[in-house]
Design a protein that fits this description.
Elements: H1 7-17, E1 60-62, E2 79-81, H2 82-96, H3 102-112, H4 114-124, H5 133-137, H6 147-151, H7 154-166, H8 171-175, E3 183-187, E4 190-193, E5 196-200, E6 202-209, E7 212-217, E8 226-228, H9 230-237, E9 245-247, H10 249-259, E10 272-273
Parallel strand pairs: 5-10
Antiparallel strand pairs: 1-2, 3-6, 3-9, 4-5, 6-7, 7-8
Helix pairs in contact: 2-4, 3-4
């Protein structure tokens, strides 16, 4: 028997499960694991049209119609952040599809992305999903949603680590570096994979201590700070110093406020694969 969920129950369940997230970054570490040869470079957000992934969108939407707050015409609108709505859509898909259709749906997600898959699933199994789900995904484009797992959170990890030092906490504070020497660095390591060489965006920290420069890589998929010798680090990642951009904490915070992304903030090299990059207007 098909499950039926009222809007009130669905909303209550979503609020119980959802976890607010900060925008994740579009980067790949120098220690990346092999990935599929299929790559995706441009993922405009379904909810606001911005140059970021829907799971990273903080745009305020109406929970009833799925439209942006300024476009909503509902009598009693209930507001929700786009990334929370995206999370609820993902939970809804896997909760309500028939078990026998799981493999088929998983394959379509890999091909078309989550939102387009949900739109198709709703049409195929209209009685299984909450009535308002169709409004949330209407007009979704094919856009792979697994990019966040492939590209990680290195830009966010690096800046948060730097902020932690100013607050007298965190691993960077433990090293007690020269405060004026600390920089967030955005660069482009190159990796050799089965389908050739690829250059990716990545972020790390550099600082000086007792006259020597160190690299602190804060991780990509997980927060795992590791200290490294700059010469070795750059050689292993085949990083070109001329392509690196270095920011003080104040400079980095201004970029974050102005461009609403953890990075990158400036035009990447033409041969670098940066998911979602469309330039910052």
């Amino acid at each position: 028997m098909a499950k039926k969920v009222t809007k009130a129950k669905a909303t209550a369940k979503r609020k119980k499960k959802s976890v607010a997230r900060k925008p994740a970054a579009n980067a790949q570490s120098a220690k990346a694991t092999p990935r599929s040869a299929k790559k995706f470079f441009d993922l405009p957000c379904h909810f606001c049209g911005g140059d970021h992934h829907p799971a990273h969108c903080s745009t305020e939407l109406c929970e009833g119609c799925g439209k942006r707050a300024e476009e909503c015409k509902c009598d009693e609108p209930s507001r929700i952040a786009a990334h929370e709505l995206y999370e609820w859509i993902a939970e809804t898909l896997w909760e309500f599809i028939p078990k026998e259709a799981t493999k088929e749906i998983e394959g379509q997600v890999e091909k078309d992305g989550l939102l387009k898959t949900v739109e198709c699933a709703f049409k195929k199994y209209p009685k299984l999903f909450p009535w308002h789900l169709e409004r949330w995904v209407k007009g979704a484009k094919k856009q792979p949603e697994s990019v966040q797992n492939q590209y990680g959170d290195c830009y966010q990890y690096s800046l948060i680590t730097l902020i932690g030092m100013d607050q007298g906490a965190g691993i960077l504070e433990a090293f007690d570096p020269d405060p004026d020497s600390v920089r967030v660095v955005h660069g482009y390591p190159s990796l050799t994979e089965s389908d050739g060489e690829h250059k990716f965006g990545h972020a790390w920290i550099e600082f000086s201590l007792l006259g020597q420069t160190f690299v602190l890589d804060c991780g990509t998929d997980e927060y795992r700070p590791e200290l490294a010798n700059p010469t070795t680090y750059y050689a292993q990642g085949r990083i070109q110093d001329s392509e690196c951009r270095r920011y003080t904490k104040d400079q980095a915070m201004k970029q974050l406020d102005a461009k609403s992304t953890w990075g990158p903030w400036e035009q990447p090299p033409k041969d670098a694969e940066i998911v979602g990059w469309q330039g910052v207007k």
